[in-house]
Amino acid sequence: MSEQPLTVAIQIGAVSFHDEGIEPLLDLLQEKGAVNALFLATPTWTRGTGGRQVPGHPLPDHGVQEYDLDWVGGNYAQMRPEYYRGTFLGPVGRAQEHGDWDLFEAVLPAAQERGMRSFAWMEESYYAHVRHLPNFVKVSEIDVDGKRTHTSCMNHPDYRNWWLSILEDYVRSYRLDGIAFCSERTGPLASLLSGSGYTGCFCNFCRRLARERGVRVERVQAGVRALRDWMREDSPSDGKFVTAWRLLLEYPDLLGWERHWAESQRSLYREIYGAVKSIRGDLLVGWHIHHGNSFNPFYRATQDYADLRNYSDFIKVVSYHNCAGPRFARYVRGIGRAFLGDHPEQANTEWLYRVLGYDGTQPPYEELSARGFNAEYVRRETLRALRGVGASVMIWPGIDIDIPTGENEARCTPESVGAAVRAALEAGAQGVVLSRKYSEMRLDNLEGAGRAVREFLANR
């Protein structure tokens, strides 16, 4: 990997450029946040990356001071029909909020004039597609009971081809600098053991592929139903943990089912990486590894950095320090209803801290939501990722700037944001990604990030 300049990227959506103007906004991002790269959110169908502030949370101190309650989202770039002939989904999903306006066409020239790189920030938003787009019900997952769900199947060939069509359209049509792909999914076993009801997909494509990988699908179905019954049982005679382990011994194909899920995600990543590189080898391609990587040891086991490095130029490791407190507390409550239901929350918190490598560095359970995590968490997650990928892949930790939290829960400050940025860079990260989206950030906290970057550069 050739030497790359320090990357300071920010995730930003179309509405911010409409509300604040392209050139004034780019100047502000450089001035306040030391930003030199844009993660331009398209396509997106979720409030985590698109639209203004999440309704009900305080509006930031910039932009239009009202919620966009009718926001839907979609693809904010043009869609050229010739690229979508390999999927029955076709060129569906063009965003309607700004008419025919094209985010890339409008922003890329002004960004290039300022020496800012531009990435297509592509959130799979797999749980939102079928609500708005024609024919997406035909690529939705089928659960263990044979029912269609609201999630899209990543093994369905038309779903994959639709994503590859969007990518080819982008890469051939625009002078982008890279692709940042986000798929916030968690596998079925990791979900069930953590208190979620997700079972995985049992459509014909998934069943056939799982069998090819040596999984006995009928035993998986029986095991999933047994785990669901276990979740509903309040006090099994041998306790939650022992009973769960007994079920895994009885239904070992559940482990194969989880491995099948993980390999399906990895094969999608490999296909995307190869497709982009075959068109433009100079583009950077990387992945967003979602926040469950910091909380859920079963999910973490599926996100092997040593494997990811074979088809990655960069990895955005989500290390959102502030909202990590409330989110970790929710996860602790979830496993308290599932495989760790035999112990109180503080004991489960301490166990997870040790397993995940945060021992002695983060708040006790009763203070998690109010305090959040500290910068030491960012440092440790950065170091873990760097050890996993070696020298071949850049690590750009995602830094929390005002990701919404609940009433009486932790809030970002310029000092806490700056400390998180410094922790990532001092640990050896080759950049940071200011997250989740500019339209929910306060300017003083953005400035805290920029100040930390400049201080780091001045001192190294």
Defining key terms:
460 residues, alpha/beta, TIM Barrel, 9-stranded parallel beta sheet, two-stranded antiparallel ribbon, 19 helices, 11 strands
Structural features, described:
By secondary structure, the chain is of the alpha/beta class. The protein has a single domain (7-185, 283-459), classed as Alpha-Beta Barrel (TIM Barrel). The protein contains 19 helices and eleven strands. Strands 9-8-7-6-3-2-1-11-10 form a nine-stranded parallel sheet. The chain has a two-stranded antiparallel sheet with strand order 4-5. A hairpin with a 5-residue loop joins strand 4 (140-142) and strand 5 (148-152). The protein is globular.
Percent range for helical residues?
A: 40-55%
Supply the helix-strand structural class. Answer: alpha/beta
- What is the count of helical runs? 19
Multimer state: single chain
Number of domains: 1
SSE blueprint:
Blueprint: E1 7-12, H1 14-20, H2 22-33, E2 37-41, H3 103-113, E3 117-123, H4 129-132, E4 140-142, E5 148-152, H5 157-173, E6 178-182, H6 188-192, H7 204-212, H8 217-232, H9 239-250, H10 253-279, E7 284-289, H11 292-295, H12 297-302, H13 305-308, E8 314-317, H14 321-336, H15 345-356, H16 368-371, H17 375-389, E9 394-395, E10 398-400, H18 414-426, E11 431-435, H19 443-459
Parallel strand pairs: 1-2, 1-11, 2-3, 3-6, 6-7, 7-8, 8-9, 10-11
Antiparallel strand pairs: 4-5
Helix pairs in contact: 2-19, 5-10, 8-9, 17-18, 18-19
